[in-house]
Amino acid sequence: MKNLSTKAGVLGWPVEHSLSPRLHNYWLKKYGIEGSYEALPVEPEKLAALLKALPVQGFRGVNLTIPHKEMALKIVDHIEPLAQQVGAINTIIVREDGSLEGRNTDVFGFAQNLRAQQVDVKGKPVTVLGAGGAARAAIVALREMGAAEIRLVNRTREKAEMLKREFGDLLPIYEWAEYPKAFEGTSLLANTTPLGMKSPETKSPFDLSALPKTAVVTDIVYTPLMTGLLKDAHARGHKIVDGLGMLIYQAQPAFKAWFGIEPEVTPGLRATMIEAL
Ligand code: ATR
Predict the structure, then answer these.
(1) How far is the CA of 5 from the centre of ligand 1 (A)?
(2) How far is the CA of 133 from the centre of ligand 1 (A)?
(3) DSSP assignment, residue 3?
């Protein structure tokens, strides 16, 4: 079945606040592709039926956001190994034969956001705050980037233990209250918890004094762009990498797969996205 349409979108519940339509439609316009990318609210119970209908509805593919990323993994026909490791997919590609391929481009997005800022963690220890779905993508990315050790700091120890059972000795666990120990000698601090989201006034609970001056600090939260954590890190002279980059870079391979063009990440695109934050 040859798919000549240029339809894509993001499925979530709720999904109205997704910034993905703004991002993909910017690129569609820039490259003169007559296509569309919409936010589509889908209740969890209806996800399977909707995904199965994508080929006949003329979709090239979709992105998935909360709460569909894990469930969709069980529905698609093919899964890339990286997505299997994360246990979640954020991108579906409708293949020419009408089957669905699931990928996880959050891993690429997290890694590329760091690489674009010349952050190299190869052979070095790094620290991850959180042990949820976003942490899993960050961990797979940091492992791919060759981090020597991924220190896990999570409020609920059991959740961190679960990740350690899966990823092994690469992941030493630190108690939430003992986070400064994990900060010592680390080359990167990555927040994957929602702490700091939509609360520019809220101060970050972390004292960064144990961080080496050379440590890079990154946050997957991008509303606000300058989270309390990033503000504190900036004030201490650390290099910071904000979370908007991850959102933009995770979209790059999806756009390429659906529309055949590798879209550029430019200051103009960033500015367009910042307007919507
Ligand atoms: P996601 O899949 O989007 O990463 P999640 O699975 O709910 O979301 O995970 C969120 C992570 O942020 C978890 O590690 C959670 O800690 P717990 O394992 O203790 O639940 C962490 N988190 C959320 N709110 C937090 C808070 N107020 N303080 C500390 N950690 C928090």
Answers:
(1) 39
(2) 9
(3) -
Report helix, strand or coil for 149.
strand
Residue 134 token pair: 């976003």
Neighbours of 261 (CB within 10 A): 14
Q: For the residues 177-184, what does the mean pLDDT come to? A: 98
Half-sphere exposure of residue 157: CA atoms within 13 angstroms, side-chain side: 8
Cβ of residue 159 lying under 6 Å from some atom of ligand 1:
yes
Q: Please measure the distance between the N-terminal and C-terminal CA atoms of the chain and give it in whole angstroms.
A: 39
Is 90 touching ligand 1 by the criterion CB < 6 Å?
no
Cβ neighbour number for residue 96 with a 10 Å cutoff = 9
Q: What's the Cα-to-Cα distance from 8 to each of 94, 96, 155, 241, rounded to whole Å?
A: 10, 15, 37, 29
pLDDT tens digits for 233-244? 999 999 999 999
Does 194 contact ligand 1 (Cβ within 6 A)? yes
pTM of the model: 0.96
Residues whose CB falls within 8 Å of the CB of residue 268, separated by 6 or more in sequence, listed in order: none
Q: Peptide bond preceding 263: is omega within 30 degrees of 0, i.e. cis?
A: no
Alpha helices in the chain (DSSP H): 20-30, 47-53, 69-75, 81-86, 105-115, 133-144, 157-167, 179-183, 228-235, 244-259, 267-275
Q: pLDDT tens digits, residue range 130-151?
A: 999 999 999 999 999 999 999 9
Catalytic residue among 69, 124, 181, 231: 69
Closest approach atom of ligand 1 to CA 66: 3
Edge-to-edge strand list for the sheet holding 239-241: 173-175, 149-154, 125-129, 188-191, 216-219, 239-241
Based on the residue annotation, tell me whether 181 is a catalytic residue of this protein: no
Burial class for 129, CB neighbours closer than 10 Å (0-12, 13-18, 19+)? buried
Pair of tokens at residue 273: 């996205």
